[in-house]
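Newbie here. two chains, one complex. Structure please?
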Amino acid sequence: MIALKNICKNYGQQEVLKDFSAEFPDGSKTALMGHSGVGKTTVLKLIMGLEKPDSGEVFRSEGRLAAVFQEDRLIEEMSALGNLKIVLKKGAEADPEEILEAMGLAKELLAKPVRELSGGEKRRVAIARALAVEPDVLLLDEPFKGIDEATLPKVIGEIRHRAERATVILVTHSEAEAGEMGCAVRKIEGRG
Amino acid sequence: MRDKKSLLIKIAAAAFWILVWEAIAVSVGSDLIICTPAQAIRRLLVLLGAPEFYKAAAFSAARIMTGFFSALVLGIFFAALSHRFSVVKILLQPVTSVIKAAPVASFVILAIIWFGSRNLSMFISFLMVFPIIYLNVLKGAESADRELREMAEIFGVGHVKKAIFIYFPQILPYLTSACSVALGLCWKSGVAAEVIGIPGGSIGEKLYRAKLYFETGDLIAWTAVIIALSVITEKIFLMILRLLGKKIGRYGT
């Protein structure tokens, strides 16, 4: 269970969230939608603990957390496989190679340094990394940016399959993406 | 082809300066003041044939390298501490400033008083290298990608993995340039300390005796040996760092 209660958050003089509340029950799938700058990414950052609210409370029950950030946040000199293995705990059951291939990445790309991959391929590595940890909570911040239309259904299918039981919060501007991900849409209006 | 041309240019430049040296030595006409390149090479060959040469090189190299590696380990350790705890950074700031600004000779004399001269070069090379490694590694750690650090935090990446895979690759360019400067400096300062402290059986002692008896050939030959040792250790160490960087990049494949 994730809950945000009466959150206020400002960046300097700019008010981003005002008295914002939301609940995300275990296993729920939610798409946060709204105009740019209304605080969708801030909500994810508050849940991740990367930002602290100015007032209000954030509650997240114990469990594995994974995220696809707006940026890929991959170690560019390292291979796709390395980027996945680095986040895996000792004895983890996930097979990074299998997940990456399921994301439509060709076998010969897996050992290449990530910097040599295209934007869309990097994005798929970032998604594969989040799925590899078998998360209880999966936060996706515009995860499909740069992924071509032909590959997108496969990627969405993999997320839905591998994060079936996870609480998923997706930030997107596309209602179609939200629908394909099986997410209930939660609109964020300006200032909560 | 391009490499060959660049090598030829380097050889030509070196040959030019050797000719200048030869011309000066011939015009001065006194090997007490300056010997010819041929005389220096002859002295070097004589030195290379004597077991004492290897003993002196080993004596100095062991101490100077011990000083270097101690400074490397402690420099990285304290940089990590300073990055984590700002109080350590504040405490070390005056220390590194003093070490950087104070004349080496002052430390040499103090060290002779405190410890004697036998391990003087070890202490001095440590002192010269520590601030360079510490400050550069700290700078590298502070400039480490915040986004990657956050990613590691969210995914619960352990401290060791974080240090090796997140911090080390970003510190590596800073560490490489620091080590390149520090390795040259530790040989220079280490041998300079030996010349002042004159520990028996060291390269510094040989240089001191060469100065004492106006053996310019020996002086130049030993200088060539110091340069060679400095270049060799630098090349080997930087190669190790490069290989380490590559090995980390290959993780998981």
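Moderator note: The CA atoms of residues 132 and 181 of chain B lie 8 Å apart. Chain B has two domains: 1-30, 31-249. Thread marked as resolved.
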